[in-house]
Amino acid sequence: MALKLTLKPDERIVVNGCMMRNSSRRHVLTIESHADVVRGHDLLDEDAPATPVTRVYYLIQTALIQKAVRDDLLPVIQKQLATLATTFGNPSLGHVFEAANYVSIGDFYKALRALRPVIAHEAEVFERIAARAQADLAAMAPVPGMRAQG
How do strand 37-39 and strand 3-7 relate by DSSP bridges? Predict the structure, then answer.
């Protein structure tokens, strides 16, 4: 079955490890045989924070676009996904297992897609932790006019 992509102006796409950029007009591209394809907006940004989930996402992304290192990365990816599975509970656990399944059958794009909700959940968890830490620091701030006891 052919893959039909509608590319936005200046959109990036990686096909079998080759980075391409669309021209300034919208185009439709049909890929008629198997190829490793990922759109630029699905690639992890270089500025993205390094977190446990984004590290695994990056490794899967690398396996997708660099076939030469794929075999070396597979055991590392599976090990890190297993670690994530023990870290996250519902609702992310199912997505982690789904990603591990897709990696095991070599469908790296679907593995990336399965991890996107986990990245969002992880970001929410980190935001809650930061807010809680901020609240705890505010609660520990000295009250004006009180002397520290010592």
Answer: unpaired
The predicted-structure confidence for 34-64, as pLDDT tens digits, reads as follows 888 888 888 887 777 889 999 999 999 999 9
Distance CA 83, CA 122 (A): 14
Cβ count within 10 A of residue 55? 15
The rounded radius of gyration (Å) of the Cα atoms in the chain is: 21
Q: Are 3 and 31 in contact (CB under 8 A)?
A: yes
Confirm whether pTM is higher than 0.85.
Answer: no
Please classify residue 68 by burial: count the beta carbons closer than 10 Å to its beta carbon, then call 0-12 exposed, 13-18 middle and 19+ buried.
exposed
- Helices in the chain by DSSP H: which ranges? 52-65, 70-87, 92-104, 108-140
Residue pLDDT, tens place only, 75-100: 999 999 999 998 877 778 999 999 99
The mean predicted confidence, pLDDT, of the chain is 88
Contact assessment for residue 14 and residue 67, using Cβ atoms and an 8 Å cutoff: no
User: What's 31's DSSP letter?
Assistant: E
